[in-house]
Every structure is written in C-alpha cells, then in structure tokens.
Design a protein that fits this description.
Structural class of chain A: alpha+beta
CATH topology of the largest domain in chain B: Rossmann fold
Distance between the termini of chain B: 149 Å
Strand content of chain B: 15-25%
Oligomer: heterodimer
Largest sheet of chain B: 9 strands, mixed
Strand order of the largest sheet of chain B: 5-4-7-8-3-9-10-11-12
Number of domains of chain A: 1
CATH superfamily of the largest domain in chain B: P-loop containing nucleotide triphosphate hydrolases
Number of domains of chain B: 2
Largest interface: A-B, 36 and 24 residues
Number of strands of chain B: 25
Order of helices and strands of chain A: EHEHEEH
Strand order of the largest sheet of chain A: 2-1-3-4
Number of helices of chain B: 17
Radius of gyration of chain A: 14 Å
Chain lengths: 105, 585
C-alpha cells in the first residue's frame, strides 16, 4: 500500500526514549539503520530522553517508550516499541515496497 | 500478636483520609501513604468513583494535590463523570494564580492509531507522572484501569516489571497510591498486583431479587488494623456513601413524651411516644396507618418542631388531600418549611440507594420527627433481608440523632402470624401499634391495639379508631363478655345500655314513690296513734279529776262523819294531803 515517497521530501521523525535502557539503545540502532538503508537523502531525527525532558513527553502524550513519531511527510504516525519489527515499522512509516528493491550501498 | 510486634518495629503507618464516611472508619483512617492500594472489582462496581472521590476530597478538603492517570477514559469523560457527582474537575486542574493546580490529569491511553513495533515499557508515562507529581506537590496518585494496560502489554514478564515500577514510583514519591483494576474475582493476570499491593479493597456489585447491591470489603491492609467485613454502599448524587460501617451508634435515651396527635392514644400510652423512640404502625390497607402518621406529624409541627415525611407510596399532594379530609391540615407546615414531604419510588432504585437518599434528606432537613410510609413498599424492589437491613440502619441513624420515628408497614396476613413476620422487626420498634378491621354484622370497623410499648405501662385494650371530618379519635371501649364492640355493635350496645339505664331509673323512681307512700302511710299511722295517745291522755286526766273529786268528797264526808261523832277537826288532815281544801260542801 501507499505510493512511493518522494525522496526529496524531508523526512522528520522524533524518537522518545528513557535514558539508556536496553529498549532505548535498540530503538536508536534500529532507526538509524533504517534511515541509512531507506532514506539515503537523509532524515531529520530528534532523540528525546524523557527522563531529562519530561515536559516534552507530556506535551506529546508519550505513554510508552520508545515511541517514534513521524511528523513529516504527513500523515503523522506513532510507532511504539524498540522498532525491532521492521515490517511493521516500514508499513507505519509508509516506506513499504522499498525493501523489495533495496538500493544497497 | 504478630501484628502488634510488627507495629512496634515499624514506624507508624501514615494514612491519607479518603474523606468518605465509612471508608475511613473501616480502613482505620484512610489509605496508606508511600504504598499501593488496589481497588479491585468488576466493571461498574464503583472503583473509579471511589478513586476519584479520594482525589477530589484530598484536593478540596485536605489540601493534598493529586494526579489522575487514566488508562481507560479520556480527560473529558472523567470530567463529565465527576461533574455528575458535583465535583468540579476543571477548576481543580487550573492554576490558581501562582499556585500550582490541585489536580493533574495524565492520559495513559495509547494513541488510537499507534502501531506497535517491538518491545516497549512504561518509562514515558512514569516519567511524566513523576514530573507532574513534583510539579504540583502531589500527595495522592491514582492509576485508573490498570487492566487495560496489562492487556496492552500482553506479556506476563513485562506486566510484572511495569507493575513493580508503578509500585516503586508510588513508594518513592511517598504518595498514597491507588490502582484500580477491573477483574472478575481477582484472577490472573492481576494476581501479581494482589501480592504487590499493600492494601486491597474489593468492590462487588450484584443483584438480589432485582435490587442492586454494592459491597465494599478490605481484603488486606499491611501494617494496619481494619474491619474485614463487607459493607454495603451506594453510589449516590455526591459520590460513594457507605450505608453503615458496623459501629453501633450511641444514642440519647429520652424520658420526655411526645404526643401521638391523638389525645386518647396518648392516654393509652401513658403520655405519648418517647422522644427519640421508634414507632411501628402495622395494618391492612385502609386501616388509617397514614392518618396515624399524619396526626403525629401535625402534633410535632404544632409544637414548632421540624418533621420529615418520607412517602414510598403516595405523592405529597395525595397525602395532604387525604389527611385534610380528616381535619389533619399540613399545608401550612409545608408552606412554612417546618414539614417536608418527600416522595421516593422504591421501584426505581435499590434499597441501599434509597437509604442513602433518605439519609441525605434527613441530614438536609434535620427533623425531630420522621415518618416513613410505608416501609413495606421497599420490599417490592429489594430482597426482604436487604430492606430489613436498610430499615434497621435508618432507624439506628434516626435514633442516634434523637429523631422520633414512625414507620408504617402494610400487613395483609393473619394477626396470629404477624409476630413471625421478619419485616415488622418488632425488636427494632419501641412501640408497636397494630390497626385492623373487625368485621361483623355487615360492617368493618377500624380497631387499634398497642401491641407493645417499651418502658410504658400501656393499655392493652383494643380501641375503635374513628375517622371523620372532625378528626381522628379513639372510641371508648365497650366490652361485652370480653369482646370489644365497635361500630354499630358498639352503638347498639350503647343503646341497649341506655335503655337498661332508663329502666333502672324508672324502677328507682317507682321504688322511691313506693317508699314515699309507705313513709306517708307510716306518718299517717303515727299521727293516728299520736292522736289516740293524746285522747288516752285526756281520758286519763278526766279520770284523775274524777278520782280526785271522788276522794275529796269522800274525805269531806268522813270529816262530817267525825264531826258529828265529836272527834277532832279533820281539816288539817285534808291540808296535809297537799290539796287545797275545797270550800264548797
């Protein structure tokens, strides 16, 4: 499903994690790997430690960590978990289909 | 023993009052601080209401800010629910000038469109809650609907981990923590929460003979004494009200009498009902139970005392109209607000809810006189044992406040079986008056019997209750051969007696006349005898005179004889006899 995203479109995501918990470390690694593989033109990634900035967590109603919010391109999507399930992650981010012909570097 | 030792070792457990009458008494002062209290029960058993009420009371009455973490409902839903109990959440969550709000709300729901991709934990939420807790200085935190969270986690290991973290957070923050969990009988996966919690309150909700019965029970309370019984409660207009918390109220015992409103009944009861006592009036339909209640209320209002008439049957207007027909006029007292007539419909609510509503009316109106008419109407809805329990608690409450209570109860069975009927709770009532019909000679008449009256040398006689447009009264007893006569029989009896009376009077008059005649005859006879005596006396006088005359003549003749014979004069002898000497010859 979903049309192929315009590579030149800016890709903005925000990742909420709690300190350096195992889930946080895994989520960051998984997200960075994904960006390298599927978004070679780069993506704007903001990582927020909810323990240091709780107010921001409240503002975004972050209940569980890790939580990834895709802010752009629309629609805004929320994905929670350590992002280890790549299929679901790509689906939620609207990047499905790309992994079938991965432009591996 | 073990408990006492534990108490000595541990510092005294600090408790946060819930501010709910009953809950605080049963838990020995409220919910533990720095610990987790689990409210467990099926859906709709009142867990959220109890938790929210604890928070709102803390914020409003004890200056203890609180946080509500909702896993199940959104903020707007919680606000709407709270508003139905008169709790103004929006004003509590607002900042007051420079002071932080007294209540904070944290939405613990996952965004509807969120996608799960891998394992996760609750760090985000817990960080947010801890942050808010510090911000407003929270003393109470509620996690509402943790079962929803457990379903979402769907991993027993993660569940345990997260529950531990919630528990740790509450302990670290030193707040009174409340976790609500929907469960049918405390089964896994909630079982871990049970062992983790320091205090467990189980809420139940069941139906008994179509009546809703809510129960509240403290299952566990580490480091504290508590009452382990189940207590009934109701969710009323202002939140949870525990109907009764087992502590027997102390009440004043009055020796003062208050009028029943019927002078002759007062006389039967040696002056009236005792103030603060409980009067039960039983009877078949139409035996004037309401009239007796009305007379009692009218007497109280006439003394200037406040009265509350709770009708579980008729509408206030009907009661006023019907009582006016027997000259019991209560409208003026209703207008002056001395009397409140409150109609409730037992069919619509459970006995517990009714009890709570009645208690609210009593507290609001503060009467000295209370009427519940008829208590038996409540049976239509609830089970008899429940109604009985409610009735007993209501009467105990009235008694503890010195309220004289009269309650009527419909009774349709035979008089012999009456004493065994549990609803009549003859043990609860101080005075028991039974009204019935005596049928016979083609009519029915109302009769009144005082079956019992504690502390009173009351009359045991059956009286006839007479209702007419002049009012209510009791008729004198007319007994024939040990049977009290009423109605026409009484009238006939009275008439017969009157006739007899007339006969007696006539007889007496006749007798008197007879005696008068006899007396007159005797008087006449006496007069005759007197006259005879007088004539006899006269006769005797005549006889005496003739004797004297004859003697004198005889004496003169002897003198003459002596003189002729030449003897001495006989004149001295004649004088010596004391009789003047007749000069004639």
């Amino acid at each position: 499903m979903g049309k192929r995203p315009d590579r030149r479109e800016s890709f903005v995501v925000r990742l909420y994690v709690a300190d350096r918990e195992a889930t946080a470390v895994r989520a960051i690694a998984n997200l960075e790997a994904l960006c390298r593989e599927f978004l070679p033109s780069g993506c704007e990634l903001e990582i927020i430690d909810i323990l240091r900035e709780p107010q921001r967590g409240l503002d975004d109603s972050i209940m569980v960590t890790p939580t990834l919010i895709k802010l752009a391109p629309p629609p805004v999507r929320r994905i929670f978990g350590d992002l280890s399930n790549r299929g679901r992650l790509l689906d939620a981010l609207g990047l499905t289909g790309l992994e079938l012909s991965p432009p591996r570097p | 023993m073990a408990r006492r030792n534990q108490k000595e070792r541990e510092p005294r457990l600090s408790k946060a009052q819930t501010g709910i009458d009953g809950v605080d008494e049963i838990t020995g002062g409220g919910l533990p601080r720095g610990r987790t209290t689990l409210l467990a029960g099926p859906a709709g058993s009142g867990k959220t209401v109890l938790a929210l009420q604890t928070l709102v009371n803390g914020a409003r009455r004890f200056d203890e800010p609180g946080i509500f973490v909702a896993f199940e409902e959104g903020f707007q839903q919680v606000v709407a629910n709270a508003a139905s109990f008169g709790w103004e959440i929006p004003s509590l969550v607002q900042k007051r000038g420079r002071r932080s709000p007294r209540l904070a709300f944290v939405d613990g729901r996952l965004s509807p469109g969120a996608v799960q991709a891998g394992t996760f934990d609750l760090s985000g939420l817990l960080a947010a809650v801890e942050f808010r807790a510090k911000e407003i200085g929270a003393k109470r935190i509620v996690f509402d609907g943790i079962d929803v969270l457990l379903v979402m986690l769907n991993d027993p290991r993660v569940e345990r981990g997260e529950m531990c973290r919630i528990h740790d957070l509450l302990e670290r923050a030193g707040v009174a923590g409340v976790v609500t969990m929907s469960t049918a009988g405390l089964e896994p996966p909630g079982s871990f929460m049970l062992s983790l919690s320091d205090c467990i309150i189980q809420l139940t909700h069941r139906l008994a003979e179509r009546a809703s019965i809510r129960g509240f029970r403290v299952v566990k309370y580490r480091g504290s004494a508590f009452i382990a019984n189940e207590f009934p409660f109701a969710i009323a207009s202002q939140g949870i009200e525990v109907a009764d918390f087992g502590t027997r109220p102390k009440y004043r015992v009055f020796t003062e009498r208050v009028s029943s409103g019927i002078p002759r009944l007062d006389h039967m009861l040696a002056g009236g009902y005792f103030r603060g006592s409980t009067v039960l009036v039983t009877g078949m339909p139409g035996t004037a139970k309401t009239t007796l209640a009305g007379a009692f209320v009218a007497a109280a209002c006439a003394r200037g005392e406040r009265a509350l008439y709770i009708s579980l049957d008729e509408q206030p207007a009907e009661i006023l109209r019907n009582l006016a027909s027997v000259s019991i006029r209560l409208e003026r007292y209703v207008r002056s607000r001395l009397l409140e007539i409150y109609a409730d419909h037992p069919q619509e609510t459970s006995p517990e809810e009714q009890f709570v509503r009645m208690r609210q009316r009593i507290r609001a109106h503060r009467p000295s006189t209370l009427v519940i008419d008829p208590i038996s109407a409540a049976i239509r809805m609830g089970g008899q044992s429940t109604v009985l329990g409610v009735a007993e608690r209501l009467l105990a409450m009235a008694k503890s406040e010195g309220i004289t209570t009269l309650w009527t109860s419909l009774y349709q069975g035979s008089e012999e079986a009456m004493e065994a009927t549990p609803l009549h709770v003859s043990t609860v009532a101080d005075t028991w008056i039974h009204l019935s019909y005596r049928a016979g000679r083609g009519e029915r008449n109302r009769s009144l019997t005082v079956i019992k009256s504690r502390g009173t040398g009351h009359s045991h006689q059956v009286r006839e209750l007479i209702l007419d447009d002049r009012g209510v009264d009791l008729a004198d007893v007319y007994t024939v051969g040990g049977e009290a006569l009423m109605g026409t029989a009484r009238w006939e009896g009275e008439r017969a007696e009157a006739a007899t009376q007339r006969d007696v009077e006539a007889e007496e008059a006749r007798k008197r006349r007879e005696l008068e005649i006899l007396a007159a005859e005797i008087r006449a006879q006496t007069e005759g005898l007197e006259r005879r005596r007088e004539s006899l006396a006269a006769e005797m006088r005549l006889l005496d005179q003739s004797i004297t005359l004859r003697e004198r003549n005889e004496s003169r003749r002897q003198q003459e004889v002596r003189a002729r014979r030449g003897g001495e004069p006989a004149s001295r002898a004649g004088r010596r006899k004391g009789r003047s000497a007749p000069t004639e010859d």
